[in-house]
Amino acid sequence: MTTISYQLYSSRNWGAEETFAMLAEAGYKEVEGVGPHYEDLAKTKAFLERYDLTMPTGHFAPYLVENDPEKAIEIAKVLGITDVIVPFIPPAERMTTLAGWTDFAARLARESEPIIAAGLEFAWHNHDFEFVPVDGQFPLDLIAAASANIKFELDLAWIYVSGQDPIEWLEKYKGRIIAAHVKDVAPKGECADEGGWADVGYGTMDWKTIKPAMDAAGVTRYVVEHDNPNDHKRMATRSLASIQAF
Asked: For residue 97, with 0-12 CB atoms within 10 Å meaning exposed, 13-18 middle and 19 or more buried, which class applies?
């Protein structure tokens, strides 16, 4: 059964309780965690319970998972997270060589070991920089080759922005995709005040063809995200309605 979640990063400019209340009213049942919501675990757990929400997936900073896996596991266990997802490399730290990416992928493989041993899933979340080839190879493929323990949360819009076809990557990693970020890209020149992103169903992503590809790849969790909405309630509500209409 397909479930629809909401990446809390989308609402980082609004208060935590306001966000949880808004999502519950909109009809969401799941959220995806992010760093600020791990700072006070008791408070976040209370919000989840108060608004009848669950948090099965969460984004975790690479340095936390690498340097303090016990802390990452504790956060996951307290909040009910079953899928630990590493999501980002700051621009200044991104690798530009095959050797650099191969080493990074090996580090991810090592990071996955205590997470898997704790009975959790471990996944990588892409942006567009993993689709810039190094010596003819895509960094995302290097990450995949490092360990079968590394699953993926494919951000379909970032794949599209990179110039790649989301459908091809859904097909390529069928069986290793724990979730997909379902977000949209505004037509060129529109939504400049929102970073060029759009509410799901109001942009240029071809969901009529992407949705069957998600089904074929076994994707059963859709995570709504918008990197910079100027109205998170509008975005959350319209995006949910669009996905339900799929």
From this structure: exposed
Average per-residue pLDDT in the chain? 97
Distance in angstroms (rounded) separating the CA atoms of residues 15 and 13: 7
Domain 3-245 top-level CATH class: alpha beta
Count of residues making up the chain? 246
* In 48-92, beta strands by DSSP E: 54-59, 83-86
Instruction: Give per-residue pLDDT as tens, 88-129.
Output: 999 999 999 999 999 999 999 999 999 999 999 999 999 999
Give the per-residue pLDDT at 1: 84
In order, the DSSP letters of 92-104 are GG---SHHHHHHH
Task: Tell which residue, 165, 158, 208, has the closest CA to residue 185.
Answer: 158
Residue range 5-23, pLDDT digits in tens = 999 999 999 999 999 999 9
Closest CA to 123 of 176, 166, 162, 77: 176
Type of residue at 73 = I
